[in-house]
Amino acid sequence: MADPWTYAGPVAQLRANNGVVTLVDESTFAISGSAGDISLGGAQGLFVRDTRILSRFEIVVNGSRTEPLAAVTDDPFSSTFVSRCRPPPGRADSTLMVFRSRYVGQGMREDITIRNFGDEPSFCSVELFVGADFADLFAVKEGRVRDGAHDDPVSGTITGDIKGEPDGGTGRTSSGLGTPAMTFSYRRGGVTRGVEVRFSGPVSLDQDLATFEMIVPPRGEWSTSVEVAPVIDGVSVDPRYRRGQPVERAEPAERLARWRRQVPQVETDHPGLKSVVARSAEDLGALRIFDPDYPERMVVAAGAPWFMTVFGRDSLLTAWMALLVDQDLALGVLQTLARFQGNEVDPRHDEQPGRILHEMRFGAAASLSLGGGSIYYGSADATPLFVMLLGELRRWGVAGELVDELLPNAERAIEWIEQFGDADGDGYVEYHRATDRGLTNQGWKDSWDGIRYADGRVAEAPIALCEVQAYTYGAFLARAHFAFEVGDIATNVRFRAKAAELKAAFNRDFWLEDKGWFAVGLDADKHPIDSLTSNIGHCLWTGIVDEDKAGQVADRLVSPEMFSGWGVRTLATNNAGYNPISYHCGSVWPHDTAIVAAGLARYGFDGPAQQLILALFDAAVAQGGRLPELFSGLDRGELSVPVGYPTSCSPQAWSAASPLLCLRTLLHLDPWIPQGKTWLSPNLPEGIGHLKVEGIPLAGTRVTIEVGDGVSGGVSITGLPPEIEVIRQPRLPTTEPRSIPRIGPAGSEADR
Fold first, then answer.
1. How many CB atoms lie within 10 A of CB 123?
2. What are the residues whose beta carbons fall under 8 Å from the beta carbon of 487, sequence distance 6 or more?
3. 653 to 68, 503, 566, 657: CA distances (angstroms)
4. H or E segment at 138?
5. Strand (E) positions, 233-323?
6. Distance, CA of 209 to CA of 194 (rounded, Å)
7. Which of 13, 270, 403, 583, CA to CA, is 20 to 30 A from 671?
8. Taking each helix axis from N to C terminus, what angle separates 606-622 and 590-602, rounded to the nearest 10 degrees?
9. Distance between CA 467 and CA 80 in Å, rounded?
């Protein structure tokens, strides 16, 4: 079986002819058709901790499948499926409708109601087919499971027991036998898994079939409830939604309600902006994970359905983008990643002392704790991003003592950068996997062919990526700030000097004078990898780009070859490797475009930044208000809607957070609370005449910023403590570079 971090082949299709519905809560998710059925032979199922505990959950009424009418998903973790029973022979219409209310969370609950709109009593036979294959998430994703049989050679040799054991014996009616249930179990080596499917009311059970028979009165209804509970190493885990208990009092519902109450509210005259930001906040709320060992800490899963787990890079960038909404998310991410920071040299997992993890998985986990997962560390950028985010959290003035507790972890991260990241001592952080089990590419474009030369050749490691050097620059400056705060002048001077040296070397070695852009990386021979990519926009974001080069970079990023009309392509159309429907070689990633826009704004190119931001908002509106993980790089002039990528995660964390970073970019909001300052210089594009953001968490209170028509002076900020000075920088022409007010990672005091 391929390791999850090395698989590069096709993945199972999620989209059925009648659509697909995905519900998520932490590491539990359910994928079904629009009638609510989970069908065999594809990627559908109920998954808990990377294991499919239900591979079939299908309802047949009076011998026929129902006709789907609607699937209403008011919450990320719940949906009501409405369908019609097929009419009996000789009749045009049916009088029976089926309502299935599903709630996922550490298992699943489903309330099933049959309503009779006829004037006569109606006999109903409801058959519920249930199956469990306990397939690994990646076996499902990669299409190695067919109708319960594992295709890959390792899984094919499993001798685990998968069985149904209904209470009271096969075929017997459960009335009087206590809680009726089906139990499926599985064993592989020392790993055991199981699932209990519990029923309410009289039901007849037989291996994989539960049958309910009833007379539904005229204008009346019949209801039952089914509960699905995972079993881990012989211990049954109760679902978060229990039969007979109020839904609104369940933990996921209460958490989401609290999240909604604290999310800042947006008012604007721009059609779609408010709904897009609201959708973003809602998706982030759904993707949060709470570790039972540390329930006060929240982290964010990378995306549904395939990546409902902790990713270092994804979590760090998402938390940065979401600072406008909730800084506690960033704190929880940092605390969790610090907890699992690398301690030893282990080539099997690319672990090294001080390294921040890339990915966590739970296939053989013995509990629901994050500590039970297996970890892979193959990321070149998560470690400097960890230090950058900690520095930014300090600037927002959040939980000073908790940030202090993480400073030793930041120090260990810096040591990794200097000792392991820069293995050859040339001043740049490179990556090269320790074994053939690891990721070939270890930047954010981590597909096997994600880093190419302009002529289409695929670059080979070790590679020093441009954005990794940019993040390292930001990490050095953050480390210098930490030293300055405690009066450690020698360390402050050392890291400011290291940042300056890295910036000078980067602008010398990565710059392609004949092309007017930076190389995406340096190869093993220190030759530039000369393709034109979106990665260079990340370099603007951190401030590593010399101002005399920024204008050319900005021009390239919004050129027709790079800007699709919906966002920035990952690779320019005039490069040999360009493919608009590839994963990293011509597609558009919303988080990437949002970072590029923030980078442009940092250097004063507000016009191009606004162009990208408005394009992203349009793309979100065209896709129902939600930005998926990625979409095609086809030009907007060819088609009036973005073309989706077949296996894109949706919701996906950093895509969900992208509109929030765009909102901050438009506001030019740059706090430095410990120093008693906040930079604020909004600049709205045409099409947005008024913007009000109410309830921004800042300096221990809630702040409201209003910009545009009818506002005295064009901008107001209320709720900020009087000791915080608001600095209004004058707007400069968008063609003139500037470094303040910055949107990207921290510069030094001298930069001010």
1. 9
2. none
3. 30, 30, 19, 6
4. helix 137-141
5. 235-236, 265-268, 288-291, 294-303, 307-310
6. 17
7. 270
8. 160
9. 44
Classify burial at 236, counting beta carbons within 10 Å of its beta carbon; exposed 0-12, middle 13-18, buried 19 or more.
middle
What phi-psi label fits residue 105: left (phi over 0), alpha (psi between -120 and 50 degrees) or beta? left
Question: CB-side exposure of 441: number of CA atoms within 13 Å?
Answer: 21
Q: Which two tokens stand for residue 378?
A: 């193959």
Residue 123: left if φ>0, alpha if ψ -120 to 50, beta else—which one? beta
For the residues of 451-519, what is the DSSP string, one character each?
A: SB-TTSPBP-SSBEEHHHHHHHHHHHHHHHHHHHHTT-HHHHHHHHHHHHHHHHHHHHHTEETTTTEE-
Please, where are the H alpha helices in 291-417? 312-321, 327-339, 382-395, 400-405, 407-416
Q: Which two tokens stand for residue 414?
A: 């810096």
The pLDDT of residue 144 is: 76
pLDDT of residue 745: 57
Write the DSSP symbol of residue 249.
G
pLDDT of residue 111: 95
At 111, give phi and psi (nearest 5°): -100, 125
Return d(Cα 226, Cα 131) in angstroms, integer: 14
Alpha-carbon distance 345 to 277, whole Å?
42
Question: What is the value of pTM for the model shown?
Answer: 0.87
| DSSP, residue by residue, 527-568 | -EE---BTHHHHHHHHT-S-HHHHHHHHHHHTSTTTB-SSSB
- Rounded to an integer, what distance in angstroms lies between the CA atom of residue 197 and that of residue 124? 22
Residue 8: the pLDDT is 41
Residue owning tokens 């590679």: 463
445-458 per-residue burial string, b: 16 or more CB within 10 A, e: under 16 = bbeebbbbbbeeee
Q: Name residues of the chain where pLDDT drops below 50.
A: 1-18, 149-177, 366, 730-744, 748-752
Question: Residue 119: phi, psi to the nearest 5?
Answer: -95, 0
Q: Which two structure tokens, joined as six digits, stand for 227?
A: 């509960």
Q: 298 is written with which tokens?
A: 């929240």
Q: Is 470 exposed, middle or buried (0-12, 13-18, 19+ CB in 10 A)?
A: buried
Q: What's the fold here for domain 263-673?
A: Glycosyltransferase (1.50.10)
Mapping DSSP to helix (H, G, I), strand (E, B) and coil, where does residue 62 land? coil
Place of tokens 């000789």: 90
What is the predicted pLDDT for the residue at 365? 54
144, 155, 362, 365, 430 from 374: Cα distances, Å: 22, 19, 6, 8, 24
pLDDT at 646: 81
Query: If you count them, how many residues does the chain have?
Result: 752
Distance from C-alpha of 644 to C-alpha of 650, rounded to nearest angstrom: 11
Return d(Cα 750, Cα 740) in angstroms, integer.
12
Containing H/E element for 196?
A: strand 191-199
> Looking at the domain 21-245, which fold is it?
Beta-galactosidase; Chain A, domain 5 (2.70.98)
Which of 157, 152, 193, 150 shows the shortest CA–CA distance to 365? 193
Domain extents in the chain: 21-245, 263-673
